[in-house]
Amino acid sequence: MEQGKLHLMKFQKRWQLLSYAEVFLYALGIAVLCYFITETVWFGLVTFIMSVLLFVFRKKPWKHNLNATSSYIDAHVSEASFSTGLLLQPEDSLSNLARLQRYKVSEELTKRLGDISPPNALKQAFLVMLGCILLGFVLHKLAIFRGVVDELNNPKNTEQIQFVGTDSVQAKSSIPAIEKQEIRVIYPSYTRLGSKITADPNIKAVTGAKIHWKLQFDAAVVAPVLDVMGELKPMQKSETGYQVQLPLTASGFYSFKFQNEEGTEFTSDLFSLEAVADNPPEIEILGLEQYTYFDFSDKKLVELQSTITDDFGIDESYIIATVSKGTGESVKFREEKLNFKEAISKGTKSIRATKTLDLNALKMEVGDELYFYIEAFDEKQPKRNVARSETYFAVIKDTVGEQFGVEGTLGVDQMPDYFRSQRQLIIDTEKLIKDKPSISIQEFKSRSNELGFDQKALRLKYGQFMGDESEMEEAPAVIESHEEGEDHDHAEDQENILKEFMHDHDGDNEHNLVEQDEHENEDTSEEPEDPLHDYLHNHDDPEESTLFEESLKTKLRKALSIMWDAELYLRLYEPEKSLPFQYEALKYIQEIKNSARIYVHRIGFDPPPIKEESRLTGKIKDIKNYIKNETTSADLPFEAIENAVSRLEQLVQGEQEFKEDDTILFTAAGNELAQLAIDNPGKYLQVLQGLKSIENNTGRTLENYQFVQKGLLLALPSTPQVPGSEKVYTDEINSLFLKQLKVYD
């Protein structure tokens, strides 16, 4: 390689190294400055790495390649005659004149490049680094950023438990610190999680776990205790320090307290205890309808597939199947416990369980029903969690119809089969009236006639329920026949024709089988009245053979009479006139149904009796107004929090000084807030710590007052709005403005 090109490459590398040196000096100065401000090595190291990356991308040393170097030399070295680029080209591709010029440039650069320095700002970078170091040293000595250091080293942001004195006067004495802390979480054996050691005092574990604290102090302490939401547990002294163990049964908060040898009491911040519940198993049945029906000739098999999962492990699971035989009072149940096809090993977190239920193997017959569900248990101790699936049904249909008959003293079903069909008739009639313009006359008359037949069937059904045994019951006198002439004559002729073939047992002394008594011609009204008539239930009389009392029987008879009118207008193809009668019949039916219900007598005001001699006299001498005085107190579940918010407002405004009674108030507010925070300890942890610092006289500052006040206001549940309580009109613009203020609050 020619000497000229070799010196050119050395110049390029020197240029890149100087650029990287500038980046290093800038980054080092900024990192040292951040270290003096934060007094944290890790923060300074992170700042150095980020600064290096920033300045590298800004300076871009990799852009100083041979082409850039050649251009720089052509611009700053006159002896190069703008021919440095010839050194970068292959010699074979150059002409004789170009080769001569290339040789000349190579000789000149060999002499001059050693004396030329690449462009750089190394001195400037060095001065910036020195300036940053001096500035950081001055700031560190003046402790201007002491608040930043305290915030970064705040116990809230570290896992080390810190203590503060509860008395601001005596707290100037030395505070014993923890040299070593160890928190061991021992999980229940069934979880198979063993135990773990953590330094984080905010603990989250499964309910039933045991928490074991070990604290080692750098000075002597007196009576250290574990304060769990007001319950004090003394710590036991060990060879290296103090220890205490607590079973985790519910979520809450805890802190440590102790005294030094001088009698000053110290306390730590609040830390959260979050108990995670062991959930019961989850059961899912796959691809099975809740109701399955089989005919007698079907293959009566139910393929049951399910998945069972649990967070720590399944103990056992099985199928509870119940076979129902018979109906009514003779129904019988047989319950069986069925195991799955797969064997369930204890501790399995997820299994797929299947079972083929053979109804014949369960000795089910026609009309029998099978109810089955899955029950699963986990391994929680001392009491297992249990879960069960929905109930599924399998029925073998009974296709044999049975007629119900009343015989002897058997019970009677008092509810008719078509008790609600009058409402369906009304719906169909209204639909017919609506469809009348869009259907033909023939279809309209056919549908109206069919509705009339349905109305007749309903009337006859209620008539049988009333005790009527004949379908040919005489219509009420209100309804007159609209058919005359041939039909009547034909009916009479038919009657005469049948008379010759009938055996008339109702005739007047037919065949003279019985001697006629002269008293038989007398009026029947003169016969003596049966004294037991009022007390007998005469089943021969349709009007008396009823299961209802007299008032219900009268209403039902009215409903039957109205059904006649409804049927008449349907037969006459006038459904508009039939509809009012149908509604009236429905009203009577509803009254009959409601009258069978049992009502509890309403308890009301029973006024005292009025003396008859005092009525209408106008004298009010002995009459006194009734006055009742009653004092009721409303329950205020968060009274202490509300009072604390009000008291904090006074402290924020500087109206009053902190009093001894305020400690009791803030303690009560902390207890109420702790009850709210049991379900979500992390949400209210900082607010509780702020309250505790106010009680301990370590956080009685304006900023802490405002922070705690805002946290207590957010913790209060929202109260329902009372209509008319807001007197100030708020338009949409003001609402948006207030909403925006809350965002930046």
From TrEMBL:
The chain crosses the membrane at residues 17-35, 41-57, 125-145. Residues 517-529 have a biased composition (Acidic residues). The lineage of its organism: Bacteria, Pseudomonadati, Bacteroidota, Flavobacteriia, Flavobacteriales. Keywords: Membrane, Transmembrane, Transmembrane helix. This is Tryptophan-rich sensory protein. The keyword Membrane applies. Residues 480-490, 505-516, 530-540 have a biased composition (Basic and acidic residues). The keyword tRNA processing does not apply.
